[in-house]
Design goal:
Number of strands of chain B: 4
Number of helices of chain B: 9
Distance between the termini of chain B: 27 Å
Helix content of chain A: 10-25%
Shape of chain B: globular
Distance between the termini of chain A: 38 Å
CATH class of chain A: Alpha Beta
Oligomer: heterodimer
Largest sheet of chain B: 2 strands, antiparallel
Strand order of the largest sheet of chain B: 1-2
Radius of gyration of chain A: 23 Å
Number of strands of chain A: 22
């Protein structure tokens, strides 16, 4: 019933960071590209009314419409998975720019340790350090090979930051200097230096100064207006595909961008794809878009769902450990923070930026000795200042009722007088944490939903128990009238946990038996299909994923160009 | 000008009074029609004064947003009373009632959010584990109505009065029981704690959301916590050691003329 359209060299599914970067790189090289985006077109000038906490943060204006599509979730394989009916935890983007519009802008590189995690862990601690059940594996690529792609992404996006000695070596400094230091960041800096650590200002995609990138795109500096995560930037100061790669691709005249185009299937014979089927969400018309190369560049969840629903690749089987599509779903850990309350001090916490913060590198990756602990990897320990919007930020000391006179008094008292020392902890893959197709629930187009089976592992809990001692020590060194710590990581709660860094499911590697794509994110089983995004991460590090996602997108763009010439698998 | 002002003062005042007089709804000064009584409040004598005050502001124009698009008058009053207990007036500043939180909630329930327009609503529906989020077939607007009815029914059961007639401490007792969700069910399988959670969330939203949504009257919610609203830049203030207090601005200020 679908209307067959003329064949094109490349079709890209999803126009966020991954799709935008690939569209930009291919069209600059003269290649015709069709970009399919299920949501609407967005531009910076749309964001005049963006300082609206209710609309954007609590009514999720920029997010995927869950009435059309969601995921189902359960904590383990014995439970019945149920749909995420409303937003609580993950915020999934929609429209041009995707999650690259509503992100905070924290832009890290992963560590050399991340890319060779299995090899390096076994080398330092012996073969038994990685416990049974943890499907930790190397990425098939080294940090040194990734470095030029990180560099490219950072220059395109204009990342602001300072070089950190304990992290992977950089060929170039960050293209713009670090963000400002606010009083709470200075408090953290002083305390951590006293304790012998080396704090640095977090790398930021919210520009610290005006910047013109190598594509000739000029953007203004961040105004610290406090509306980043969940919001679009009305200044274009926050790096976003809609102010960087998408306009560049459009300017070539080679990008045919089709919004309201919801892809439902990759047409394939198991060895090669011939195109995709999509529905115009406004008219209901169905189209077939044939292409030489199919690039799947949607969010993690749909990257996996497209492959499984289209019968591409080998589905992961948690009972045998075989297959790779859906394997190594990872998240991050965020318990373990210590909150400081001040009685007589007020900070200007109403101002902020999504990537404004300060952090220490000493507890990331393998930068400390893990011999005597029951976990590997680590956490970034940090103080951030995003801007305390008033609906979302009502921190009160433990024991305060959650409503009534006392709640009002305490929540207003501490509105500008409280901040946490937080952790962002790495998430290691486990054989029982995975993604597959839900047997019951379907989306608005009749396509089965993705099912997530996930809970925090012992590794995660051990990591939190260790890191909370560090955040407590730093909080005490800063000094406050009252300090509270979140001591333990509870069960995963799809409605409450606040991290939105989902990874894995179409993981990269050097071995077709244990990975779904090679290091160009080209499918082992279908060489004209590239699956691009943080779905390729074999584990999640203790950093925000976008920097690595961006770097891998540049590498994939290079691979696609080579493939278009040779028609051969790249490795 | 003077004549015009006089005219504006007298006409609405007189017309409302005349309407009540002539409409046959009053018996010895008491309003007997449920709707009219509800609209104007419990005491019609006060209302006559209220009419005078409310219709004769110096601008001669009241905020048209302060009207109901969803609630019945009784539901509105119950919502005012319940939200005031969640966020009460005190020495810091106004409570939910003065901040127009019930107007905010009314507008939200009339909006697409009230009919769960962006939620996944396909079945089947099962009882969730605590980690799986709400699994409710009922729409928010219907649940809220049942919740308000439940506040009255439970108050009757416990104190032989409707919720708005209770003393503040009694209202708190009812709300605590609703929060715990053990004492009473709204309907088969629908816990009062689900309603309470939504009531609490909506109250905080109504205190602090942009005033264009109907609550946070005159940005007083923001003023109480020294929140400056939706200003375009804090590049100066953010590096200041000292706290910088700014007058709040709402989204209206971004509209230009």
């Amino acid at each position: 019933m679908s209307k067959k359209l003329p064949k094109v060299p490349v079709v890209i599914v999803g126009m966020g960071w991954a799709g935008g970067i690939i569209a930009s790189e291919l069209t600059k090289a003269g290649i015709e590209v069709v970009g399919l985006e299920r949501g609407k077109e967005r531009q910076v000038k749309d964001f005049l009314m963006v300082h609206d906490e209710l609309r954007y943060q609590h009514r999720e204006d920029l997010m995927q419409d869950l009435s059309k599509e969601t995921i189902t979730s359960r904590n383990n394989g014995k439970m019945k998975a149920l749909p995420m009916r409303e937003y609580g935890t993950f915020i999934v983007g929609d429209g041009t720019g995707g999650a690259g519009t509503h992100w905070n802008g924290q832009t890290y590189r992963f560590l050399p340790y991340d890319f060779e995690i299995k090899t390096m862990t076994e080398k330092r601690y012996g073969p038994n350090k990685i416990k049974p059940g943890y499907t930790i594996q190397d990425w098939g690529i080294t940090y040194d090979e990734m470095e030029p792609y990180y560099d490219k992404f950072e220059k395109m996006a204009g990342i602001s930051g300072e070089t950190v000695e304990l992290y992977g070596p950089r060929k170039n400094p960050y293209p713009t200097g670090p963000m400002v230091k606010t009083p709470i960041m200075e408090d953290f800096e002083k305390a951590t230096k006293n304790l012998g650590y080396t704090p640095y200002v977090m790398p930021s995609g919210n520009l610290s100064e005006p910047y013109t990138n190598p594509d000739g795109i000029s953007r203004a500096a961040c105004q610290y207006c406090a509306y980043c995560e969940n919001f679009g930037c009305e200044y274009g100061a926050k790096a976003d595909p809609i102010v960087t790669v998408i306009p560049v691709a459009k300017q070539t005249g080679k990008l045919d961008l089709r919004t309201h185009s919801n892809v439902t299937k990759i047409i394939n014979d198991g060895k090669k794809a011939s195109g995709v089927i999509y529905v115009n969400t406004i008219t209901g018309e169905e189209f077939e878009q044939p292409a030489d190369v199919v690039v799947i560049a949607s969010y993690v969840f749909n990257n996996v769902r497209f492959l499984l629903n289209s019968g591409l690749g080998k589905p992961y089987d948690p009972t045998t450990g075989t297959g790779s599509v859906g394997k190594n779903y990872c998240y991050q850990v965020t318990a373990g923070s210590s909150i400081l309350f001040f009685n007589d001090k007020q900070f200007n916490l109403y101002g902020g930026a999504g990537a404004l913060g300060i952090e220490i590198p000493e507890f990331t990756g393998d930068n400390f000795d893990h011999t005597d602990v029951n976990f590997i990897h680590g956490a970034g320990i940090r103080v951030t200042q995003y801007g305390n919007r008033p609906i979302a930020n009502n921190t009160v000391p433990k024991g305060t009722p959650s409503w009534g006179a006392e709640f009002k008094k305490q929540s207003i008292k501490y509105a500008n007088s409280s901040f946490p020392v937080k952790i962002q902890g790495a998430s290691m893959p486990h054989e029982q944490n995975y993604l597959d197709i839900d047997p019951t629930y379907k989306d608005a187009y009749g396509v089965p939903l993705l099912r997530m089976t996930f809970d925090y592992t012992d590794q995660d809990k051990e990591l939190v128990s260790y890191m909370v001692k560090v955040t407590r020590k730093i909080a005490e060194e800063i000094g406050a009238d009252h300090i509270e710590s979140i001591e333990t990581q509870g069960e995963f709660n799809v409605n409450k946990d606040s991290n939105t860094h989902n990874t894995g499911g179409v993981i990269m590697g050097a071995d077709p038996e244990t990975s779904a794509v090679n290091t160009y994110l080209q499918m082992w089983d279908a060489p004209n299909v590239f699956v691009v995004g943080s779905s390729a991460f074999p584990h999640n590090s203790c950093f925000n994923p976008t920097g690595t996602l961006g770097a891998l997108s540049y590498r994939a763009a290079e691979g696609i160009q080579t493939y278009l010439k040779t028609g051969e698998p790249l490795v | 000008m003077a004549d015009k002002d006089k005219h504006q003062k007298q006409v609405p005042d007189g017309s409302r009074r005349n309407f009540l007089k002539n409409s046959g709804l009053t018996v010895g000064g008491l309003v007997v029609g449920g709707t009219i009584a509800g609209l104007l409040g419990a005491n019609p004598e006060n209302n006559n004064q209220g009419v005078k005050n409310s219709e004769t502001t110096s601008q001669g124009y009241k905020n048209p947003n302060e009207a109901l698009m969803f609630f019945t008058p009784a539901q509105y009053q119950t919502t005012q009373a319940a939200t005031e207990r969640i966020f009460p007036k005190d020495e810091i500043g106004p409570g939910a009632k003065e901040l127009n939180v019930a107007i905010y909630i009314d507008h939200q329930l009339a909006s697409p959010w009230g009919i769960n327009a962006k939620n996944y609503m396909l079945g089947p529906f099962y009882e969730p584990a605590p980690t799986q989020g709400p699994q409710l077939r009922i729409l928010r607007k219907d649940m809220f109505r049942l919740g308000l009815q439940g506040l009255d029914d439970y108050s009757q059961k416990k104190y032989q009065k409707v919720f708005t007639e209770l003393e503040a401490e009694e209202q708190d007792e009812v709300l605590v029981d609703f929060e715990e969700g053990e004492a009473f069910q709204l309907t088969a399988g629908l816990s009062t704690s689900v309603f309470f959670t939504i009531l609490k969330t909506l109250t905080i939203e109504g205190v602090y959301a942009d005033p264009m949504y109907g609550g946070n009257k005159e940005m007083q919610g923001w003023k109480m916590r020294n929140y400056p609203g939706t200003r375009m830049s804090y590049a100066q203030e953010i590096v200041e050691e000292k706290f910088v207090k700014l007058n709040p601005e709402s989204l209206r200020s971004h509209m230009g003329q």
